[in-house]
């Protein structure tokens, strides 16, 4: 398999082009009769949130993994938030390793997935709701603003949300100064079709984060092992940042979202979804997106009618 490397304003881009991704062609809509693969244990998350290539994924010894525990403070009780907890296995594994010396919070837009008994036993706090603006989500933001030592999103709202950019702003407000955010999001296997648009759109997002939040946000393409088609290597987008010293308050959230809409644009699907799944909590779909400014409304002619 050959890798094509592209360099530009973003960090080095790895695009796996020897094989079609599951998003191209044969899997227009995922077979709803099969359970959507959703392995989200700590080891899997550490691999997904580290930059890899098809070469590094070729063996366990060369696979890059993120050392999540090493990023958490040891002199205080760490707060970790998973914005797309799925069954909750990532947080369950963290609870097993950290014991009672942590606060673990999971956000779920599909609570039927959750391993409720195990999560309750592990002491995991669960918030049911959809990012970026559900009432329960806003309550969490006000309760935990500036408290999180780590925020993770593994194919959660950064993939499914109707405005993934707002979800990134949300995560930034949750973090403590110096704490890190990481998200792995779906792509169409190339730099043009991602949840965060093409390279031009991502450059605008970078500029917005720097100007308004004093945060350097990074977009990197990374190789991942497909769960839909085991053995296949696909390319997805890793989004990371470390919160700076600028104070960000929950009360500023909607103002920042509006500013992002004005500077970057409104999130809109750029391609039909290749994955749609209807749950009791609503429809989920994976849409490649672009961001466009509000279109001005033309003059409206009003005719007065009299009886």
Describe the structure.
By secondary structure, the protein is of the alpha/beta class. It has one domain: Rossmann fold (3-Layer(aba) Sandwich). It has eight helices and 13 strands. The strands form four sheets. The protein has a seven-stranded mixed beta sheet, with helices on both faces. Strand 3 (79-82), helix 2 and strand 4 (103-108) form a beta-alpha-beta unit. Helix 6 (164-174) runs antiparallel to helix 8 and helix 7 packs antiparallel against helix 8.
Q: CATH superfamily, called what?
A: Vaccinia Virus protein VP39
Q: Shape, please?
A: globular
Largest sheet: 7 strands, mixed
CATH domain class: Alpha Beta
Question: Quick summary of this structure?
Answer:
With 307 residues, the protein is of the alpha/beta class. The chain is 24% helix and 25% strand. The chain has a single domain, classed as 3-Layer(aba) Sandwich (Rossmann fold).
Strand-helix topology:
Elements: E1 3-6, E2 13-16, H1 42-48, E3 79-82, H2 89-98, E4 103-108, H3 116-121, E5 125-128, H4 135-144, E6 148-154, H5 157-160, H6 164-174, E7 175-185, H7 199-213, E8 217-225, E9 233-242, H8 253-263, E10 266-269, E11 275-279, E12 282-286, E13 289-292
Parallel strand pairs: 3-4, 3-6, 4-5, 6-7
Antiparallel strand pairs: 1-2, 7-9, 8-9, 10-13, 11-12
Helix pairs in contact: 6-8, 7-8
Task: Looking at this protein, list some descriptive labels.
307 residues; alpha/beta; Rossmann fold; seven-stranded mixed β-sheet; two-stranded antiparallel sheet; 8 helices; 24% helix; 25% strand; globular; disordered N terminus; SAM-dependent_MTases_sf; Methyltransferase domain protein
